[in-house]
Amino acid sequence: MGRPSRRGRDIDGIVLLDKPLGLSSNDLLQKVKHLFRANKAGHTGALDSLATGMLPVCLGEATKFSQHLLEADKRYRVTARLGERTDTSDAEGQTVSVWPVSLDQARLEAALDHFRGESRQVPSMFSALKHQGRPLYEYARKGITVEREARPIHVYDLQLHHWDLTEVELEIHCSKGTYIRTIIDDLGERLGCGAHVTALRRLAVARYPTERMVTLAALQAIAADAPETPETLAQLDALLLPMDSAVADMPAVNLPSDVAARVRLGQTVAVTAQPQAGLVRLIEGDAGRFFGIGEIAAPGRLTPRRLIAEPRA
């Protein structure tokens, strides 16, 4: 539930946005923050303006766990045009080369197989990856090329859905830090004809259900007539997923209230039944109330890592 404030609301939770075409992730974030009257909001990995699809937006204390969604697996559907390479590897860039396309499906399948599994990828200059505190795309727009190191990625699944010589549609399930535009650009180079992205949709982030996605238009419709009434805010709040959905894959450790109180003070505590070493979800008492994440770094010892603030009176 939201807690009133002169600036807005201390509302906590995650809303799964279906990002529309042509709107930047930050613009969408600001619109959602305003609609919910939230004091704090953050997204979990930007989508390009030409991309659509799932963009989890964290409100309030949920922003403390957004990094775990940044690091989660993603699934995309991408459409690419073969025969043209652009400077941004997508349709928003300038064409830099054009080649005739001459290949058969067997050759295309063989090229696609190269991208399945573990590999290393050099990020695009038109990515949001930062160099000396500034995103690479700022350098690229000034014609500056920055040396980038190849980074490990994993493509868990890559399916060919459609191909008609000059257009190909793929579905890609991949690890964090995978640039779909770079896969398409590299595919074009491997085929010897160039390629660029013409449409991109993020289908999934982590295990979030696609049916829980909501459009900006739907949120605006709820708030259209009476944006700040308790009834309107209650309708919006009903769309929120709980904070701990961002860390749902972590094993849970249930602590009695007296031990949980010590953890909230930053103390390392002894635990008896615990999972293997690593990060865990912290829940309290019979109600199983989530209050943060901790780490088991040594057998029987639990250290707090990221805790939610207690509700204000």
Q: Would you kindly provide a written description of the structure presented here, covering whatever features stand out?
A:
By secondary structure, the chain is α+β, with helices and mostly antiparallel strands. Helices cover 22% and strands 35% of the residues. The strands form 4 sheets. Strands 1, 2, 3, 4, 7, 10, 11, 12 and 13 form a 9-stranded mixed β-sheet that branches. The protein starts with 12 loop residues before the first strand and ends in a 6-residue tail after the last strand.
- Report strand %: 25-35%
User: What is the count of helical runs?
Assistant: 8
Helical residues, percent: 10-25%
Rough outline: globular
Q: For this entry, what is the oligomeric state of its chains?
A: single chain
Distance between the termini: 13 Å
Number of strands: 18
SS class: alpha+beta
Radius of gyration: 22 Å
Biggest sheet layout:
9 strands, mixed
Can you give the mean pLDDT? 91
Element-by-element helix/strand order: EHEEHEEEHEEEHEEHEEHHEHEEEE
Poorly predicted parts: 1-6
